Amino acid sequence: MMRKKITKAKRIVVKVGTSTLLLPNGKLNLSCFDRLAFVLSDLNNRGYEVILVSSGAIGVGLNELGLSSRPKEIPKQQAIASVGQVQLMNLYTNQFKLYGQITSQLLLTQDVTSFPESRENVINALNALIDMQIIPIINENDSVALDELDHETRFGDNDKLSAIVAQLISADLLIMLSDIDGLYDKNPNIYDDAKIIPNLRVITPEILQIASGAGSRFGTGGMTSKLKAAEFLFENQLDMVLTSGKNPDIIFDVLKGKNIGTYFESEEKDD
Length: 271
Ligand code: ADP
Description:
Blueprint: H1 4-7, E1 11-16, H2 18-21, H3 30-45, E2 49-54, H4 57-65, H5 74-98, E3 103-108, H6 110-114, H7 116-131, E4 135-140, H8 158-168, E5 173-178, E6 199-200, H9 205-211, H10 222-235, E7 240-244, H11 250-255, E8 262-264
Parallel strand pairs: 1-2, 1-5, 2-4, 3-4, 5-7, 6-8
Antiparallel strand pairs: 7-8
Helix pairs in contact: 3-5, 4-5, 8-10
Adenosine-5'-diphosphate is lined by residues 17-19, 178-180, 183-184, 186-189, 210-211, 213, 215-216, 221-223.
């Protein structure tokens, strides 16, 4: 069955994770950067309104500085993110430019999107950029975001950030590109007989359970954070497709309404 609602989507948020942008050896996945820039520029030309939420500042920073592993000290991680974010945007800017597409950068923290006045400012800036056919590239401001008891500035992960961005601009669809091609009924890296779940309309405790089983990383990222993002989207009548970022061309097929990945479809809006 076709996903008819998706074929009408116009305003799209695409989220890519570090595992999509970097190769297992820590080097840049240049074909991914290139295809992503091509696909999103092409969609923009065709009248889609596109926003990219991209992780990767620390990964790209480690690569830039020739470091093989992430230091434990938070100030050092922040310094690496600060180096990497510039390099990440440099890569995007150059790739998008090849296709005649202008991009921009927004670095957000949780307090900015939850405080009403600054939240309104972010919404206005994003809408102005979309009106100017510019593709905003958004990341958490990793160099300054920290969790403090009385002042929470971190989103925690970009899955949540991308869901919040989708809500801020009332996106028709969030496309979450991951290192896995969808949600499975059990962790496919452990169980050979795991089956993909093509459609989901509610996040039940049982569903959360299958994502937090053995093999998952707890707390940061992993499938659990994607399901938490989906839960937030459902509360806001927003939709998401979770699929593999291995080849970003897949975005074209997702938007054609093909049965790809896992479709988290909220109840119809009454409009
Ligand atoms: P990304 O880096 O792309 O954001 P993550 O690596 O954080 O993605 O999360 C995806 C991983 O979650 C999968 O590679 C898989 O190892 C794990 N996982 C655990 N349970 C499941 C499940 N039920 N279905 C799919 N993936 C699962």
